[in-house]
Design a protein that fits this description.
7-stranded mixed β-sheet; 322 residues; alpha/beta; Spore Coat Polysaccharide Biosynthesis Protein SpsA, Chain A; 2 domains; 11 helices
């Protein structure tokens, strides 16, 4: 199932329609596009009888968001197992559906996949991809120990019955974002959730090109975190807090000249562990080209996210004041 908008679908949709799987349907929700997307979908429909699509017209008086489009698509689905992705995503292989589908069972109702970004030149691209790896390491890791708390809409699967048994997005329909992570945060548990990380099961997206657009994207994503369950908010805050605290205390003690040799030894061990963990994670997720940058990004990203959170707080405060 794809929520498509505009020209991005013209490149990516054929890659989804040509999946090597015996029986499936593709449901496209054309959400307010202003180009010739509907005409293009009609042309594809003549070639692929598994394609179904509908259009939601743009309404300037009502900003419905992505959740309405997803709900429309889910209601139209004839199969129980749903695999979701976005307009700017394409599958990494012809076995995307097959690999995700293999994880469903009587007990497993939610499958968390990995949505990577294309490797391109530039520092921003490396930061975006490392941030994506780090986020995936967190939600895959917590899911593995029985504490699933989020998924990403670029590559997420769940059962249609699960969606309607939990009244879809009703509990957070007033929040424009969170169609993926808030839904998973609400309904996932250690028994009903599985993960799929193979290279063939992944989706690939085009990353943001400018710092301004990436900043806007990150700020929007971070607004949903405050709606997570309390235990999840604590765990997700504790990890970056302890990480930054470690570096701050080490630097302060080194400046003060206290146990310099011991502190340097601890710092070297910490960096070596980080390098090993990052290397193994990148190998598991089929990522390349940003390994050694982890030493810098391990400190930089928590500071960047803290800045984005603080910016969101100031924005909310100013809006309330107005």
């Amino acid at each position: 199932m794809c929520k498509k908008r505009g020209r991005k679908s013209k490149k990516n949709l054929p890659l989804i329609l040509n999946q090597k799987y015996p029986e499936f349907e593709i449901i496209v929700v054309n959400d307010g596009s202003s180009d010739n997307t509907e005409e293009y979908l009609g042309q594809l429909k003549e070639k692929y009888n598994r394609l179904k699509f509908t259009t939601i017209m743009e309404d300037k008086k009502f900003n419905h968001g992505k959740k309405l489009a997803l709900t429309v698509g889910i209601k139209a689905a004839k199969f129980e197992h749903l695999i979701l992705t976005d307009a700017d995503c394409y599958p990494a292989s012809e076995k995307w559906i097959e690999k995700i589908q293999e994880n469903f069972s009587n007990d497993k109702h939610i499958i968390l996949g990995y949505g990577k970004y294309e490797a391109q030149k530039g520092l921003l691209n490396k930061i975006i991809r490392y941030d994506t790896i780090n986020i995936a390491l967190q939600y895959f890791g917590f899911a593995n120990i029985g504490i699933p708390y989020m998924g990403v809409g670029r590559n997420l699967a769940y059962k249609k019955s699960l969606f309607f048994q939990n009244k879809g997005f009703a509990s957070h329909s007033h929040i424009l974002s969170g169609d993926d992570d808030l839904f998973v945060n609400e309904v996932a548990n250690k028994k009903n959730t599985a993960i799929e990380t193979s290279a063939e099961s992944q989706t690939i997206s085009i990353p943001e090109k400018s710092w301004k657009s990436w900043s806007k994207q990150k700020k929007r994503h971070l607004t949903t975190g405050k709606h997570y369950k309390l235990i999840h908010k604590f765990l997700l805050t504790f990890e970056p807090f302890t990480r930054i605290s470690f570096y701050v205390f080490v630097i302060l003690l080194l400046i003060m000249g206290i146990q310099v040799e011991l502190l340097l030894s601890i710092l070297v061990i910490k960096i070596l562990m980080l390098l090993v963990a990052t290397k193994l994670t990148m190998k598991r997720l089929d990522e390349k080209g940003i390994w050694l940058y982890c030493v810098i990004f391990d400190v930089l990203l928590p500071l960047i996210n803290a800045y984005f959170l603080f910016s969101n707080y100031l924005l909310r405060k100013n809006n309330k004041w107005k």
